[in-house]
Amino acid sequence: MASLDRVKVLVLGDSGVGKSSLVHLLCQNQVLGNPSWTVGCSVDVRVHDYKEGTPDEKTYYIELWDIGGSVGSSSSVKSTRAVFYHSVNGIILVHDLTNKKSSQNLTRWSLEVLNKDSSPTRVIVTNGDYDREQFADNQIPLLVIGTKFDQIPENKRNEVLTRTAFLAEDFNAEEINLDCTNPRYLAAGSSNAVKLSKFFDKMPGFSDRKRFGAGNFKNLHYD
Amino acid sequence: MSFFVDSVIMFTSQVLFFGFGWLFFMRQLFKDYEVRQYVVQVVFSVTFAFSCTMFELLIFEILGVLSSTSRYFHWKLNLYVILLVLIFVVPFYIGYFVVSNIRLLQRQKLLFSCVVWFTFMYFFWKLGDPFPILSPKHGILSIEQLISRVGVIGVTLMALLSGFGAVNCPYTYMSYFLRNVTESDILALERRLLQTIDMIISKKKRIGATRRMMYLRGEDQNKQTGFWGMIKSVTSYPPGSENLSLIQQEVDALEELSRQLFLETVDLHATKERIEYSKTFQGKYFNFLGYFFSIYCVWKICMATINIVFDRVGKTDPVTRGIEITVNYLGIQFDVKFWSQHISFILVGIIIVTSIRGLLITLTKFFYAISSSKSSNVIVLVLAQIMGMYFVSSVLLMRMSMPLEYRTIVTEVLGELQFSFYHRWFDVIFLVSALSSILFLYLAHKQAPEKNMTI
Fold first, then answer.
1. Nearest alpha carbon to residue A142 among A4, A13, A43, A1
2. What is the ipTM for the molecules in this complex?
3. CB atoms A76 and B266 under 8 Å
4. Under an 8 A CB cutoff, do B258 and A41 touch?
5. pTM over 0.80
6. Where is the Golgi pH regulator conserved domain (chain B) (predicted)?
7. With bands split at pLDDT 50, 70 and 90, how would you rate the model's confidence at A167?
C-alpha cells in the first residue's frame, strides 16, 4: 500500500490563483482542461527522482495536497482545514501575479499552517502581520510560485517581478513564476525545473527526523 | 436664497453617502480582490448615494426640514437620476462586462453590450403587461411607466427576502433547533475524511506506478513496426490500461466522497460553535429574541393570509392607529400632532436603517458565496441593481407606514400608481416565500441528522 516514507507537501493560496491547475501540471505533465472550484482538499501524486544521477538515487512519491478556500473563511472552515496540516514536509505558496492581494494573503496562509504546528508551550501572539522572527526558526521548506505570468502587461512586468522577489526573500524561499496553461515553463532543464527539483530534494531529508506534529497531535495517518 | 442653501445641504449629504458607499465597496465587498475597473466602484457608490438620498428626503419630509418647494424639486431630480442609473447605466455596464468575459465577442464589445441592453429593455417593458399597475391616462413615455415596473421587481425582491428572513431569523437564533454534536462525532468524521484521502493517495500512486511501467514497456512495444506489428498492438492492449480506468473511476468516487465528508465536517464544526455560543450570555439573549421573532413571524404570516383572503389593504398606518388606541381606550391625552410626527420619524428611521443594514449584509454574504475573480465585476453590478430597485420599492411601500399628511409627497412625486396593488403583491410573495422557506428549512433539518447517523 503506502510506501514507507510519506512526503506531504501542502499547496496553499487564495481562491482562484490556479493551485489546481498547478498541481495538475506538476503531477500529470498536462494542462488542466476544465478547472473548477476545489472543495476541501484535492490530492495528487508526483513521481520524483531524489538525487537523480547519483548512486543515492531513489524514487519518491510526493503527495501534493491542494487545499481550497480563502484566508477569510469562517472559523468552522478553518478548524476543518486544520486536519490537513498534520505532519507536513513542505509548503508551496501560490499567488496570482495579476492580483496583489493574493500575494499579501500568503503571509496569513503560512501563519495559519505554522501556528497549527507550534508546540503547545510556545504561544504565538500575532496580529497577522509579517514577522520575520516567526519564519526564522521555521524548518519547513517553502516555495513561492506566481501564476498567470502571461497575463501581466509588458510595462508592469519589472515592477511585479521586483515585488515578488522581495516576497520570496521574506519567506526565505525560492520563487518560480509561470503560467499554468503552458508546460514550457517547467520544461526539463529550464531554471524553473531545476528550482523545483531542488525544493523537492529537500523533502526526503525530513523523513529521517521526526515529522512535525506527529508526537503532539493524534496521528491519523496509516503508515 | 433658501433654495440655494437647501441644495448645498442636499449635495453635501449626497457626497457623504457616496463616500460611505465607496468605503463599503473597498473594505467589505472587494477586500479579497483588486479593483481594476474603477467604473464599477463609481457606479455602485452612485447607486447607493442616490438611494440613501431618497430615504433622507423622506425623513426631511416628516421632520419638516428644508422648504417644501425645494424638497419637491429634489425629490423629482433624485427620482429621475436614479431611474436613469437603474434602467440605463447599470444594465448597460452589466452587459458590457459579461461580454468582456466571453472571448468570442471581444472585438465588438460595445455593439454586443448594446444588443444585451436592448434585450433587457424589451423584457423590462414586457414585465408591465400582466400586472394592473397603470391607469390608462398615462402616456407611453411617462415616468410612471418606468417606476411601476421598477416597483414590481423591487417589491418582489423585498417580499422574497423578507419572507425568508422572517423564517430564518428564529431558526438561527433559537437553540431549540441545534442538533447535539459531541467532540467524538467530529473526531470520527475527521478520521473518516483523512482515511478517504489516504485511500485516494494510494490509488493514485498505483496509477502512477502502472503508468510508469507502461511507459517503459511501451518503448519496447513501439519497436514493433510494420503491418503485422500494428495489428498486434491493436488487439493485445496491455492489461494495465483496463485496470487503470477502473482505478480512475474508484478515485473519482472517492474524491466525491471526500468533498461531501469535508462539507459535513464544516457543518459539524459550525454547529458545535453555535452550541458553545448559545451558552454565553449573548447567546441566551439571542435565544430569547428568537422566541419573540418566531411569534412575530407567525403573526405576519397570518396577517398576510387574512389580507389576501379578505381582500383588504390596511387603511390606517400603525402610528395613527397606535395613537388612536392610546387616546380612545387608555384615555391618555397628549398633543397628537407633535407626537405623531416624532413617533413616525422614529418608526420610519428604524425601518430605513434596519433595511439598509440588512440588505448590505445579505448582499455581502451573497457576494462572498458566489463571486470569483472573473465574475466579481458583473456580480457587484447586479447587486447594485438589486439594491437600487429594493430601495426605490421600500419608499413606495413605506407610504403605508406613514400618517396621511406625509403620504401626499410620495403620491405626488411617484405619480398615481396603484399603491394597493403593490401591497397585495407584497403579501402574496411574502406568503409564498415564507412557506417555501419553512418547507426548505424543515427538509434540510430533517436530512442532517440522518447523514450523521450513517457513520
1. A13
2. 0.79
3. yes
4. yes
5. no
6. 142-207
7. confident
